[in-house]
Amino acid sequence: MSLVPFDDRDGSIWLDGKLVPWRDAKLHVLTHALHYGSAVFEGERVYNGKVFKLFEHTERLQKSAEILGFKLPYSIAEIERATEETVAANNIVDGYVRPIAWRGSDEMGVGAHNCRIHLSISTWVWPSYFPPELRQKGIRLCIGKWKRPDPETAPSHAKAAGLYMIGTLEKHAAEAQGYTDSLMLDWRGYIAESTGANIFLVIDGKLHTPIPDCFLDGITRRTVIGMARKHGFEVIERHIPLEDLAKTQEVFLCGTAAEVTPVGEIGPYSFKPGAVTAALIADFDAMVGRVPA
Ligand code: PMP
3-class SS at 202? Predict the structure, then answer.
């Protein structure tokens, strides 16, 4: 795979109030966020030139910052406008958007009251998060080792950079064993989510999904719950023990990057993407205005 490094591309990035040439969007090595994980971010998708659920994502960015104890220097409306400006400037029709806010380099040490808050917004074309050839039979997940932490141990409800440390460890471990991703359990041992998407199980025609009490309550997750109920499927939010996978017929992941992705295997358990998953993929495609292939 030939990679174009993310710091060496054409285009522009919105940084602290204005668009700058892509390669100039740099920061200093003594940036608080780099040393202490004080950054929050979002992942958004652009469909037909429009950011899907832009308000919801921007509001979550603001909430994540609040959870980490800082205030974004721009209003939600200003960030929404900046996002649209960035997408337009880079001519993105179908792509991904990454806003990130972080504590800067004005102070070193754990305490950071004097660090100014920075915000950048980048966008690029990013078609399919998981290999498209796996979308038919479903991706393969291993069962992870690291646990989603108790909300008394980490700011679980923020989309905070530091929480992804165990995600990267899991993703690497999964790929090293030939899996696409990892199913992470929570600190109590219940099914939580993958490294970057929420999970749904179909058991006897009903949808079951974990209560997001110690991991991200995805915007796509909420969208899927709404679509499923509209479709007439019952949705049950509960704590789900791993053993419930033995009586599960279908599994899918959902998230901004993952969209709705069928899962064919989780460790020793296998599933066949079926009618419920197919119906929800069709509903999702319709909602984002994608013409079926
Ligand atoms: N969990 C994690 C850990 C994620 O990174 C994401 C992607 N943002 C999700 C769930 C799904 O959230 P959303 O649907 O809001 O993208």
Answer: strand
> What pLDDT does 2 receive?
60
Q: How many angstroms separate the first and last alpha carbons of the chain?
A: 25
Domains and CATH numbers, the chain: 12-125 (3.30.470.10), 134-288 (3.20.10.10)
183 pocket-lining for ligand 1 (C-beta < 6 Å): no
Tokens representing 180?
Answer: 């696409």
Q: What is the mean pLDDT of residues 102-107?
A: 97
Backbone angles phi, psi at 84, to 5 degrees: -65, -40
pLDDT, tens digit (0-9, with 9 covering 90-100), for 43-84: 999 999 999 999 999 999 999 999 999 999 999 999 999 999
| Ligand 1 contacts CB of residue 99 (under 6 A) | no
Cβ atoms of 61 and 82 within 8 Å: the answer is no
172-192 pLDDT, tens digit per residue, is 999 999 999 999 999 999 999
Which tokens go with 291?
Answer: 């013409």
Check pocket membership of 212 for ligand 1, CB cut-off 6 A: no
pTM higher than the cut 0.85: yes
Ligand 1 centroid to Cα of residue 11, in Å, is 26
| Pairing between β-strand 50-51 and β-strand 117-124 as defined by DSSP bridges | unpaired
- Over pLDDT 90: what percentage of the chain? 93
Report residue 55 as tokens.
């308000």
Instruction: Region of 141 please: left (phi>0), alpha (psi -120 to 50) or beta.
Output: beta
Closest CA to 56 of 202, 225, 222: 222
